[in-house]
């Protein structure tokens, strides 16, 4: 009985790992190569493009900027678990750096994008 539970838990963990999303803006070469359809050359091309021109905005941006990645390829890689997360950590840092001090009003765009920031009246 214990053996069946252990096997079931191992299968669920493997299944969950197989469908884990890989963020193209933060992944290293090994993580990118873990996505079915991305080999060593394509992972290197993605990393070089990201390093040279910054994070990808969305999957269409990835397809435009990386040679050999057309619309169908991008769709297939997205189905395999490749995703584009937030456009770099700099965006989050900038929001944190411009957080208002006590008593200051929060611009509507900041309050909308960062619901944890409350406006004190």
Automatic annotation (TrEMBL):
Region annotation (Disordered) ranges: 93-121
Q: What is the lineage of its organism?
A: Bacteria, Pseudomonadati, Pseudomonadota, Betaproteobacteria, Burkholderiales
Question: SUPFAM superfamilies annotated for this entry?
Answer: RuvA domain 2-like
Q: Which GO terms describe its cellular component?
A: type II protein secretion system complex
Q: Where is the signal peptide?
A: 1-20
Keywords from the UniProt entry = Signal
The identity of this protein, by name, is Competence protein ComEA
- List the source organism: Paraburkholderia susongensis
Q: InterPro entries annotated for this entry? A: Endo/Exo/Phosphatase_dom_1 (IPR051675), RuvA_2-like (IPR010994)
Q: Which GO terms describe its biological process?
A: protein secretion by the type II secretion system
Q: Does the keyword Nucleotidyltransferase apply?
A: no
**Keyword Signal tagged:** yes
